[in-house]
Amino acid sequence: MAKRGTEVRTVGISATGMYVPDRILTNAHLEKMVDTTDQWIQTRTGIRERHVASPGTPASDLAAPALQSALRTRGLLPEELDHVIVTTVTPDMFFPSTACVLQDKVGARNAWGYDLSAACSGFIFGLIAGSQAVASGSVRNAAVVGVDVLTTLVDWTNRNQCVLFGDGCGVVILEPRDDGDGIIDAVLHVDGSGGQYLNMLGGGSLNPPTHATVDQGLHYLYQDGKAVFKVASTSMADVTLEVVERNGFRIQDISLIIPHQANLRIIEAVAKRLGIPREQVLINIDRYGNTTSATIPMGLHEATRSGRVKKGDLVVLTSFGGGYTWGAVLLRWEL
Ligand code: UT7
After folding, report:
1. What is 11-179's CATH topology?
2. 4 pLDDT band (50/70/90 cuts)?
3. d(CA 225, ligand 1 centre) in Å
4. Quick check: CB of 45 below 6 Å from ligand 1?
5. Cis peptide before 91, with omega less than 30 degrees from 0?
6. CA torsion, points 150, 154, 156, 161, in degrees to nearest 10?
7. Is-above-0.85 flag for pTM?
8. Is 183-332 in the same CATH topology as 11-179?
9. CB 329 within 8 A of CB 243
10. What pLDDT sits at residue 2?
C-alpha cells in the first residue's frame, strides 16, 4: 500500500472489460428442462438467452479474462495495479477471497484487495469503495470486478428460478482525474429487513452445510419475486432521481441510465416512473439474463464499445438487490 496522500481527488473510470462464458442456454433449451415456454419467459422477464458457465467453473475464471482485457485496454501491466475489489455472492470459496485468487491468477502482485458482498448492488457499492480508496491517494488505481456464477445457486428443476439467471463478469479500472469529470456522486442504501425476500440461507454459520440443509434446498437461492419486483422498481427510480436532482441536474440531462438487469418489466417500470423514454435506458437482459453483480459493468462496457455513451455524457448506474441493497451513482463519462 502506498503512503496516504493528503488531497481528495476526483476519480473516474479509465477502462472497462467484460467476459461471459461461451455456452449459451436459450429459452428453447429451458423448455426441454422444465415446464416453461419461450413466450412466458420473454413476456414476463424479457430474457431470450443467457451465458452459462460449465460445471466446476469458479468466479475467478470469469474474472481473470475480464480484468486482463480492462488492463490491456488501459495499457497497464498487472503489476501496476494497486487494488482489486471483487463484488460477488458466488465467490470461488469462503476463503481465501476471490480477490486473492484473482490477484494471483492475473499476476497483479502489488495489488491488495478483498471481496465485497452486496448481491446485485455489489458493483456500485464496490465502485464507491474503490473510488474512495483512489480519491484518498492510498492507491494509485483500483479494479472493481463485478462477477457472479449465479447459475451455481439455482435449482435447475425449479422453473421460478432457473430461467432468470446467467453468468458473467464486468470490470472497471478507476484512476484519479484532474478535470473534475468521473464519479460525481452516489446515494447508497441498505435495509436488512428485506433479507427475508431474497436470500440463500444455507452454507454459512447460520446453517452450516449438512445433509439436512441440502435436503431442504437451503443451498439454493430463494426469492419472493412479486415482493422484490415492486420495491425494486420504485427504489431504483427514486434513488436515480435523488442523485440527479441533488446535483442540480434534471432527469432529461442524463444521456443513459444503466440499471441492474433483473427483469425487463422492472426496467420499463423505472423508465415510466422517471417519465423518460425506453431509449434513455440500457437494456441487455435479453442476451444475458440476470448476472447479479456483473449486469452494470457489462452494460457499461457494451455502452462504451458501441458508442452509446460518449465523452462528456452524464450517466447514472442504478441497482437493487438482496439485502435489501440499492443505490445510484452519477458520473460524467470520460472515455
Ligand atoms: O436481481 C435481484 C432482484 N430480483 C428481482 O428484481 C426480481 C423481481 N421479480 C421478478 O422479476 C418477477 O417477480 C419474476 C420474474 C421472478 C416472476 O414473475 P411474476 O410475473 O411475478 O410471476 P409469478 O412468480 O407471480 O408467477 C406467475 C405464474 C405462476 O403460476 P400460477 O401460480 O399463477 O398458476 C407461476 O407458477 O407464472 C408461473 N411461472 C412460470 N410459468 C412458466 C413462474 N415461473 C414460470 C416459468 N414458466 N418459468
Report:
1. Peroxisomal Thiolase; Chain A, domain 1 (3.40.47)
2. very low
3. 6
4. yes
5. no
6. -100
7. yes
8. yes
9. yes
10. 44
> 69 CA distance to ligand 1 centroid (A)?
36
CATH number of 183-332: 3.40.47.10
Residue 5 pLDDT greater than 60, yes or no: no
> pLDDT band at residue 28, thresholds of 50, 70 and 90?
very high
C-alpha cell at 149: 456464477
Q: Which atom of ligand 1 is found nearest the CA of 292?
A: 1
Q: Which of 120, 141, 162, 301 is catalytic?
A: 120
> How would you label 199-228 residue by residue, b for 16+ Cβ within 10 Å and e otherwise?
bbbbeeeeeeeeeebeeeebbbbbbebeeb
* Cα–Cα distance measured from residue 57 to residue 62, given in angstroms and rounded to the nearest whole number: 8
112 φ/ψ angles, rounded to the nearest 5 degrees: -110, 160
Cα 227 to the center of its chain, rounded Å:
21
Query: In terms of DSSP bridges, do strands 10-19 and 167-177 run parallel, antiparallel, or are they unpaired?
Result: antiparallel
Specify the length of the chain in residues: 335
Reading the block at residue 144, the C-alpha cell is: 472493481
Determine whether the shortest distance from the Cβ of 48 to ligand 1 is under 6 A: no
Q: Kindly state if the Cβ of 163 falls inside 6 Å of ligand 1.
A: yes
pLDDT digits (tens, 9 = 90+) for 247-302: 999 999 999 999 999 999 999 999 999 999 999 999 999 999 999 999 999 999 99
Task: Give the three cell numbers for residue 151.
Answer: 447459475
